[in-house]
Amino acid sequence: MPTPGRGGPLKHPAVLEQIEARHHHFQVRLADDITAFAGSMNFVYIHAVIFAVWMIFLEHDPWPKLTLFVSLEAIFLSTFVMIGQNRTAAFQQAKANHDFVEQELELKTNTALTRETQGLIKEIHERVLGGPAIASPVDDPR
To answer: Where are the transmembrane segments (predicted)?
Structure first.
């Protein structure tokens, strides 16, 4: 069951654990910030302006250096994408583990309640009608 976030909407416990874990690691926070910026339109606009100024005004023959620069940037950005994917996979696994435990607990609780209800129904039947209750499919050992 989701728990309240810090002053915000309800958040899954696995989400809260991931937020807390990321908060304490500088490198992870830095990677989050870079990934967030690289995935924004501001990143695109800034690069378009820088490349246009560089190619038009600063370099006579920009292609060799531009190719090198863009290739290096692609290497680093792809690394940040993979870091984000790994983090997402870890979060999804943590959430799946948490959900599994919660569902198993819910199943055990429901099974116990069903058995208790069945026992109470038998007891009521015996007291009201004075005889044993008819065996239910749950009691059938087959």
So the answer is: 34-57, 63-83
Examine residue 35 and state whether it is found in any structural domain, yes or no.
yes
- Does the residue 113 lie in any domain? no
Do the Cβ atoms of 55 and 66 come closer than 8 Å? yes
Distance separating alpha carbons of residues 130 and 123, to the nearest angstrom: 10
Question: Count of residues for the chain?
Answer: 142
- Taking only Cα atoms into account, the Rg of the chain, rounded to an integer number of angstroms, comes to 30
Q: Is residue 44 part of a domain?
A: yes
Range(s) of the domain holding residue 52: 3-93
Give the model confidence (pLDDT) of 103-116 as tens digits: 999 999 999 999 99
Per the CB < 8 A criterion, the answer to whether 22 and 32 are in contact is yes
Give me the numbers of helices (H) and strands (E) for the chain, helices first please: 4, 2
Look up residue 52 and give its amino acid.
A
Residue 141 has pLDDT above 80, yes or no: no
Q: 11 vs 78, which has greater pLDDT?
A: 78
Distances (CA, A) of 62 to 53, 55, 76: 11, 6, 21
What domain count does the chain have?
1
In a domain, 141, yes or no: no
